[in-house]
Amino acid sequence: MTLLSIRDLRTYFYTEDGVVRAINGIDLDLEEGETLGIIGETGCGKTMLGLSILRLLSENTKVEGQVLYRGTDLIRLSKAQMRKIRGKEISMIFQNSLSSLNPVLTVGTQLAEPVEMHRHMKKQAAKQRVIEMLKAVKIPSPSDRAVEYPHEFSGGMRQRAMIAMGLACTPSLIIADEPTTGLDVTIQAQIIELLKEVLEQSGASMLLITHNLGVASELCNSIAVMYAGEIIEYAGVIDLFKNPGHPYTRGFFDSLPNRGLKPMPGTCPSMINLPAGCKFHPRCPHASSRCEKEKPDMLKVEEKHHVRCFLYD
Ligand SMILES: Nc1ncnc2c1ncn2[C@@H]1O[C@H](COP(=O)(O)OP(=O)(O)OP(=O)(O)O)[C@@H](O)[C@H]1O
Ligand code: NI
């Protein structure tokens, strides 16, 4: 069953400098129980995609298209209806756990909040649930830790607490934005193991936003590669690593430390002045005059492997 269907999603910011086109027509399907990775260079719109799905954007933003969650278009829900979905049906685990947690509230109080709100639990029951949650993410002495403040937690423990918060109301979909970034390698591995375990136990689907390909390969079934607010390649995880099709994906892989550290020439285009045609053409070693004028569709190179590039036309 398809849990989430995104159709022609577009997210624009209206700024003094002009319109920032952060998401430019994204189509994606996420199946029940699937983990889909969203990868790409910094600034390509990964976080904006997550925030657009949950409608966590500021007033100067316009979101167009459809985000169908179990057939309901989230874009068209009222703010009150959206609040009922957020945290309960779909939750988000953010990049920086220190800035996402409130420094003046204990970890336990913060974890209890969504439980009390969505599950209508009384204070005492919610407290019990918080301790269970901390236990589930393997935080030692959970009842002692629940009364501590975020700064008393180490980075790894805080990220565990964030995951616990994301799971508090047993959501069907978790959007995790760089859940291991900033943690040292050993802790990173522990958090990946923990995410694997919780996904297996809960059966939840996950949209995993990351530029860490190691993390993506450990957790994802399939991967969508983003460039300048578009998906330019989509494939099963093994297929993508074996046969990256888009010149951007290949360049991105080659630029990584474990794959040669060969820097890709140029930078991501400004989202205010996007190039015509294929948005990657100014940086592409294979660009032809067609690429300057025409935007390629997603072309099928193999079963479940699509690439937005005329090389496959
Ligand atoms: N509030 C805002 N107003 C205007 N532009 C914004 C705003 N927030 C983000 N942007 C722009 O939207 C684009 C996409 O940003 P986004 O944060 O989604 O990138 P990202 O892929 O998540 O990058 P990173 O890997 O660094 O987290 C960027 O060009 C950014 O400058
Ligand atoms: Ni981001």
From TrEMBL:
Residue intervals of the ABC transporter domain: 4-253
Q: Which GO terms describe its biological process?
A: peptide transport
Domain of life the protein comes from: Archaea
* Reactions catalysed: Ni(2+)(out) + ATP + H2O = Ni(2+)(in) + ADP + phosphate + H(+)
**Principal EC category:** translocase
* Keyword Nucleotide-binding recorded: yes
- Please name the Pfam families in this protein's record: ABC_tran, oligo_HPY
| EC number assigned by the record | 7.2.2.11
Q: Give any Gene Ontology cellular component.
A: plasma membrane
Keyword Ribosomal protein annotated: no
Q: Which CDD domains match?
A: ABC_NikE_OppD_transporters
UniProt membrane topology term? Peripheral membrane protein
Q: Which PROSITE patterns match?
A: ABC_TRANSPORTER_1 (PS00211), ABC_TRANSPORTER_2 (PS50893)
Which GO MF terms does the UniProt record name? ABC-type nickel transporter activity; ATP binding; ATP hydrolysis activity
Quaternary structure and interacting proteins, as annotated = The complex is composed of two ATP-binding proteins (NikD and NikE), two transmembrane proteins (NikB and NikC) and a solute-binding protein (NikA).
Name by which UniProt lists this protein: Nickel import system ATP-binding protein NikD
